[in-house]
Amino acid sequence: MSEKLRVLIAEDDSRLAGMLESLLRSEGFSVELARDGQRALHLGLTGAFDVAVLDRGLPAVDGLDVLRRLRENGVTTPILVLSALGTAPDRVDGLNAGAEDYLAKPFDIDELVARVRALTRRAASVVPTVRFPGGRLDTDSRTVTLDDGSKTVLSERESALLELLARRPAQVFSRSLLLEEVFAAADDPGVVDTYVHHLRRKFGRTLIETVRGVGYRLGALS
Ligand code: CA
Predict the structure, then answer these.
(1) One domain, residues 116 and 198
(2) Structurally, how many domains does the chain consist of?
(3) What is the DSSP string of 72-109?
(4) CATH classification at residue 201
(5) CA of 222 to the centre of ligand 1 (A)
(6) What is the pLDDT of residues 35-55, one digit of tens each?
(7) Torsions phi, psi for 206 (to 5 deg)
(8) Per residue in 140-194, pLDDT tens?
(9) Is residue 21 part of a domain?
(10) Cα-to-centroid distance, 11 and ligand 1 (Å)
(11) What is d(CA 131, CA 116) in angstroms, rounded to the nearest whole number?
């Protein structure tokens, strides 16, 4: 795959932020920088990142609060927390808040890069099952198994659409974003509605919610 991995860096120390940015760029990542917790939260909720590096001591919203709020909103991006607080209880706080990894400052820059890479690899090898209220989708076999045990095999595009909605259940997706991520950007936007219709016909109208004027998000089986 030639597409760049996307990393979010949230760090208010501009020297360190600049260094991390240029280092990860040189390692082939596409980098977005947030200088405070508010911005980090916004980017984390709206952007699709493969991994995030989050400073714990951020202005506006504390790093661990950013982390908790991302997890509460269904964001599953692997996150490495950087912190000057490096005792065992500090690490436990970070992991309990939903971090995959925790690195105390000062850290070795090569170790940071290695850990970021490890997190992206781990995420890529995640079990291909995604749950949604009322059932689960196995993305390898494209099979939906409802909680009553009934199984339905989806087409490739139906599966890709449901997977995206189910992996980020709090996010409202515009048609153009769905078009870009699931279909070919050159397709007619109406194709999104067609596939939403297919999924609703198979699983009921409430599986996918229409957010008027915005787009679609995951609902629940009725
Ligand atoms: Ca800081």
Answers:
(1) no
(2) 2
(3) HTT----EEEEES--SHHHHHHHHHTT-SEEEESS--H
(4) 1.10.10.10
(5) 45
(6) 999 999 999 998 889 999 999
(7) -80, -10
(8) 889 999 999 999 999 999 999 999 999 888 889 999 889 888 887 677 888 999 9
(9) yes
(10) 6
(11) 26
